[in-house]
Design a protein that fits this description.
The protein is α+β, with helices and mostly antiparallel strands. It has one domain: Sandwich (Protocatechuate 3,4-Dioxygenase, subunit A), CATH 2.60.130.10. It is built from 5 helices and 13 strands. The strands form 4 sheets. Strands 5-2-11-10 form a 4-stranded mixed beta sheet, with helices on one face. Strands 4-3-6-9 form a 4-stranded antiparallel beta sheet, with no helix packed on it. A hairpin with an 8-residue loop joins strand 10 and strand 11. It is globular. GO terms for molecular function: ferric iron binding; oxidoreductase activity, acting on single donors with incorporation of molecular oxygen, incorporation of two atoms of oxygen. Keywords: Signal. It comes from Penicillium brasilianum.
């Protein structure tokens, strides 16, 4: 049986993340190329290991079953073969398989040769919130197209899955506003209650196969950025009694994307269509360009529709290879405490301007989750 895994989005210690957008670009490109060469050599040996092949076989079966569990029709899949920004944005990550069922052979689903897709370390963005809850469903009644994020984390040095890594995700809501922060560029900047809003944010531990999943909604858009999902990987963290995380080190920071054709289909639906801010295409997104520059990166989710149309939901997946010894500093906008969200006055810029400001579709009068 041909193994599943199609991509490894690799972290690189050369990228500064405390103040992204201000790094020495020329120096980083040279460091990235050196890192990519070494990482590629390391990962090329992974497929030779019986344990790694067994891991991918389990991933094939697990993702097949999970997609079928969420689907309203038979599951299918998508393949990646992207190597630069132009190829990435012109590659469909949706499969054209037809006539498949849950009883189809595993090599029909999520299959092809293992390839190494390399990515630089990405920007954290300005609206990370520390202290979010460990939970798998982050929807919190937010309206929008249902989506499942499925990620598998691989140690680039050992080719082993990373167990008990904590996968931290967040994205804006359907009309481009982030929960958990109060900022003039993000919805109603006067709405202090948005600091207590936890929608579309959460953390999940990886299992013995290095896998974690979230149920969320497809992100909307805001000024100057293509549709994306923020991710952080925590290593060696401790779970507190209140269901939050503390300690450890940040081994990966990045942003993940979707096909432009899928974004267009989602944005035609309400409430996404209520957002009058101009859409930034993947081809014009500076972060996506940076994550695919001088690399073989494709930081775009594989996906399959869970029904006949996007309204029925989307199952998306990606594999992320990281250096577990890496440790990054990440700026944050707020901290979620026992008494609610508390703004961080000296968080610093995360590289983009955050969510939509002013009047944003039906959401201009409130923070994420309000005014729908």
């Amino acid at each position: 049986m041909v193994s599943f895994s199609k991509l490894f989005v690799l972290g690189i210690t050369a990228f500064a993340v405390a103040h992204p957008g201000h790094e020495d670009v020329g120096s980083n490109i040279a460091l990235k190329r050196s890192f990519f060469k070494n990482a590629r050599n390391s990962l090329s040996k992974c497929a030779e290991k019986a344990e790694f092949r067994a891991l991918q076989a389990r991933a094939t079966a697990r993702r097949r079953d999970l997609a079928y569990e969420h689907s309203k029709r038979s599951a299918d899949t998508a393949f990646l073969k992207a190597r630069d920004l132009s190829t990435v944005i012109n590659t469909s990550h949706l499969s054209n398989l037809t006539g498949v069922t849950v009883d189809s052979s595993e090599d029909v689903f999520f299959s092809d040769d293992v390839s190494c897709i390399l990515s630089p370390e990405g920007e954290v963005g300005p609206f990370w919130v520390k202290g979010e809850y460990i939970r798998s469903d982050v929807t919190d009644d937010e309206p929008g197209v249902p989506v499942v994020f499925d990620a598998q984390f691989i140690d680039i040095d050992t080719c082993e899955p990373i167990e008990d890594l904590y996968f931290d995700v967040w994205n804006c809501n359907s009309t481009g506003v982030y929960s958990g922060v109060q900022d003039s560029s993000n919805g109603n900047g006067n709405d202090a209650s948005n600091l207590d809003n936890t929608a579309l944010r959460g953390i999940q531990p990886t299992d013995s196969d290095g896998v974690a999943q979230f149920t969320s909604i497809f992100p909307g858009h805001y000024n100057g950025r293509a549709t994306h999902v923020h991710v952080i990987a925590h290593i060696g963290a401790t779970v507190l009694s209140n269901g939050t995380l503390t300690g450890g080190n940040i081994a990966h920071i990045g942003q993940l994307f979707y096909d432009q054709s899928l974004i267009t289909a989602v944005e035609a639906l309400s409430p996404y269509s209520e957002n009058t801010v101009a859409i930034t295409l993947n081809a014009n997104d500076r972060v996506l360009a940076a994550e695919t520059a001088s690399s073989e990166s494709d930081p775009v989710f594989n996906y399959v529709l869970l029904g006949d149309t996007v309204e029925d939901g989307i199952f998306s997946w990606i594999a992320i290879g990281i250096d577990t010894s890496a440790s990054y500093s990440a700026s944050y906008a707020a901290t979620l405490t026992a008494s609610g969200g508390v703004a961080e006055s000296n968080s610093g810029s995360g590289g983009d301007t955050g969510g939509n400001g002013g009047s944003v579709g039906g959401n201009g009068g409130g923070g994420a989750g309000g005014g729908h």
